[in-house]
Amino acid sequence: MVEKNSKRLANLSLLVASTGFVATMPFQAKFIQILSGGFEAALVGGLADWFAVTAMFRHPLNIPIPHTALLPKNRAKITEGILSSLNNQWLSKESLIEKVNEQKWIEKGVDSFENMLNDEESKEKIISSIQEFGSSIQKKSIEKIIQDSLHTTLKSISSEKIWSNVIDKIFQNEWDEKTYEFLIDKIEDYVKMPHIKELIGREIIQFIERKFFMIKAFLPMIGEEKIIEFIHNGLLDLLIELKNPESDRRKTILSFIRIEAEKSKTNENVIRQLDEWKNSGATYAIQEVTNWIQNKLADRTYILNTLLRLLDFIKKSGWVNKIDISFKKILYQLIEKYHYKIGELVRMNIEKLSTEEITDLLENKIGKDITWIRVNGAVCGFLIGIILSTIQIIFK
Asked: What are the coiled-coil residue ranges (predicted)?
C-alpha cells in the first residue's frame, strides 16, 4: 500500500532515532552515551508505538501475530456498534422527533416568502417567474386542465336528479303557489289599467264580430262601452276567484301544474335539454375562466396583491399552525415507519466497502492523530532515555 503523507513525520522520527542510536554507539564519552541512551529509548518507544498503532489496522510486517489487525477482525462488531449508536443515540426516534418538534418550517417558510416580497429584486423575480410560467402554458392547455378537473364533477352531476330535487324543493316550500299568486296579482294589476281595459274589450268585440255573425248584429244595440265594462268585470271576477284558496278552479290549475311538473322529472326531452345546458354552460365557464387567468397573469400588480392577500389570509386564519401540525404529524409517521431504514442504509454502504477500504478510510480519518502518537512515543522515549542514562552515569 502506498504510504500516506500523514505517516511521514512518524517514520521520520523513527529514522532519526535509529540513525542517532547507530551513530552514537561507538563513542564512550559520557555526553555521547547519554545521547545514545536517549536515541535508544526513542527507538524503542517509536517502534513500540508503531507496532501498537499498526496492530489496530493490520498485521505488522504482514506477520499474523495474535491480537493484531484488530479493526479488520472486529469489522462486524464495529459495524453493529456504529448502527446501535446511530439508532439508539445519535439518530434515535426520540431525538429525531424532538428535533422535528423544535422546528417551525411552515412559519419560517411563510416569513421567508414575505421577506422576499418586501425585497424589490426578489419580488420582481417571483412575479416574472409566475408570468413566465403562465405564458409558457397554451390557452388550450389551460382549458384542458380546467376541463379535466371539472370532468369528474360534471359527470357525477345528474341532470335528472337535480331537476327532480328542484321540483321537490319547489313543492316543499310552496313556491308553485307563491308564483301562481304573484302572477295572478300582476295580471289583475295589469287588467285594471284603463288602456288595457279598452284594449282587451275591443279585441274581444272584434273576435266576436269575426266569428259570430249573428251576435254581431246585436252588438250596436247593447253598446260598445257596456260590452267592454261587462268583459272587464268578468275578468276581474275570474281573477278574484282564482285567488281564492277555496276555489275549485285554482285547485285544478295548481293540481295540473304539479302533475305536469312530476311528469317532467322523467321526461327525456327535458333531461336532454338540461344536459345540453349543463355542457354548454361548462364550456362557456371554462372559456371565461381561461381568459380571466390569462388576463390576470399579465397584470403584475394583480399578481403581487394576490400574493400579499394570500399571505395575510394564511397568517390570520391560523393555517400556519394547522399546516405545521399536519406536516409534523406526517414526519412523525415517516420516522416511526422508516426509522429502521437509516440503519439499513448505513449497513448497506458499509458492506459495500471492502475490509481494506474501511481500514484505509479509518486510518486516513484519524491518521494525523495516530501519527502524533508515534511521534510522541519517540520524543518521550528520547527524553526518558536521556534522564535514565544520566542517572545511570551519575551513580556509576
From this structure: none
pTM for this model (two decimals): 0.41
d(CA 320, CA 109) in angstroms, rounded, equals 10
Confidence label for 2 from pLDDT (cuts 50, 70 and 90): very low
Q: What is the DSSP letter of 7?
A: G
Q: Which long-range contacts (CB under 8 A, 24 or more apart) does 244-251 make?
A: 250/180
208: DSSP letter: H
CA 393/CA 396 separation, integer angstroms? 5
Burial 25-38 (b: 16+ CB within 10 A, else e): eeeeeeeebbbbbb
Q: Is 67 left (phi over 0), alpha (psi -120 to 50) or beta?
A: left
Nearest to 381 by CA among 29, 23, 50, 43: 43
Displacement of CA 256 from its chain's centroid (Å): 57
Distance CA 304, CA 119 (A): 12
pLDDT-derived band at 60, boundaries 50, 70, 90? low
Question: What pLDDT does residue 370 have?
Answer: 66
Q: How far apart are CA 290 and CA 150, in angstroms?
A: 13
Other CB atoms within a 10 A radius of the CB of residue 257 amount to 16
CA geometry: angle 221, 225, 231, nearest 5 deg: 100
**Ranges 30-34, 357-361, 365-369, most confident:** 30-34
Please tell me the predicted confidence (pLDDT) of residue 29.
72
**What pLDDT does residue 335 have?**
81
**313 to 112, 142, 307, 308: CA distances (angstroms):** 16, 26, 10, 9
How much is the pLDDT for 61?
Answer: 59
| DSSP characters over 210-278 | HH-HHHHTTHHHH-HHHHHHHHHHHHHHHHHHHH-TT-HHHHHHHHHHHHHHHHHTT-HHHHHHHHHHH
* CA-angle at 113, arms to 110 and 115, nearest 5°: 110
146 Cβ neighbours under 8 A, 6+ residues apart: 286, 289, 290
Grouping H, G, I as helix, E, B as strand and the rest as coil, residue 8 is: helix
Q: Residue 75: its pLDDT value, please?
A: 67
> Range with the lowest mean pLDDT among 51-55, 242-246, 347-351?
51-55
The secondary structure of residue 68, as a DSSP letter, is -
Q: What is the DSSP letter of 366?
A: S
Compute the residue count for the chain.
396
Task: Name residues whose C-beta falls within 8 Å of residue 92's C-beta, 6 or more positions apart in sequence.
Answer: none
CA distance readout (Å), 225 to 192, 232, 255: 16, 10, 37
